[in-house]
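Amino Acid Chain and Its Fold in Token Form
===========================================
Purpose: to set a sequence beside its fold so the mapping can be learned.
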Amino acid sequence: MTTESASATANTMKDDRPKGRVLIVDDDRAMCEMVESALKRRGFGAAWKTSADEGLKLLGNEEFDVVVTDLNMQGTSGLELCQQVVANRPDVPVVVVTAFGSMETAIGAIRAGAYDFVTKPFEMEDLALTLERATQHRALREEVKRLRQAVSDRQRFNDMIGASSAMEKVYDLIGRVAETEATILITGESGTGKELVARAVHNRSRRKEGPFVAINCAAMPESLLESELFGHTKGAFTDARSARAGLFVKASGGTIFLDEIGEMPAGMQAKLLRVLQERTVRPVGGDSEIPFDARILAATNRDLETEVAERKFREDLFYRINVVRIHSPPLRSRGSDVLLLAQAFLERFANLHRTNVKGLSSAAAERLLAYSWPGNVRELQNCIERAVALARFETLGVDDLPEKLRDYKPSRVLVESEDPSELLPMDEVERRYVLRVLQAVGGNKTLAAEVLGFDRRTLYRKLERYGQAEGRPAGSEALPD
């Protein structure tokens, strides 16, 4: 290497912005010290070694953004150093310094994987600019790597598909709570994929090697549900010919998923509360407690706040399971995710049914986007499977869709008409809008009240007036109108 020019030194101003960390390798100690000092004045971090072997060792122990090395050194050459860095640390660019006129050597270094080269004698400003470009190049490569990892992470969310802001919130919450032991309540309408959320939490948790045990709390009577969850002893009831461990014990080391917990009978709610508090279960017919070690995930399509207010769901159990809440959004709020899901289902069913269907026509896509999807992702899946099975061409058209999609017309409150006969009284506008909001949130009165700016009791009074209320919160009878 060579000394920096006096004019460059005189004009150099210190830049406080960090520009990256440079490893300098040269068998001339004085040159290393001079370049280190000059780079530090220009905002770089720097360290140096006087042999390629020492430089490689330091690179293995510390993080650098770029390596700058002289080609002609005693022992291991700069070219060999470049080859080893490229082989072992391909993320770190190498800038080589070669004598003027040694272009063949410089080209050899580029072929060996060097990012760039500078020739002697050089101005320090030229070297600094080259190193700055090299560090920016590394930063760009690291960003690309990060984005690829982010895509890979998204792909590891089981079968969850979606790029909407609503789904990004779900992914973010899953990522933040998966490795904790917090109890999670997953809410959302039927068909939104609540079990997929639960499986994603399990698969990204420390318990992923353990079992994932799911049970639908609405699918069986109370006595059978108790036996399934807590187990039973031999002879505890007719047909109990042998003892059987319950699902809480079977889920030890993993996760138990209590689907449709809002449907659980009141008697079971009290027993479940005790289980969650004590972390032990007593089998049906048993007289001793059995400990278990399972993470609890629960899901419901009910508005549990309203259920609590109506005394249909235990308040203490609600707070026990609602430590962290993840809301699985309805399909109608996920925008173009409808088309991502439709294409994924189309490919799956085309392969399953061995058809040549490749994609959607623009007209069919428009109908899918316009439809409100009350059955959510499950309804979309059914729709696409039917269309693929009946399709006559490679592209799904409007005629391949179910009649309810072909004839669907979005409901709107008319407010812009110039014809007075088409305009509505304010009470009717409010009624239609309130009911439309309630439909949009899947009947969740708590969420509907939040969207409308009402408290829940006000919403109940309006729904009663519309003949739509299923009940009132406890204590609301005494409220003045």
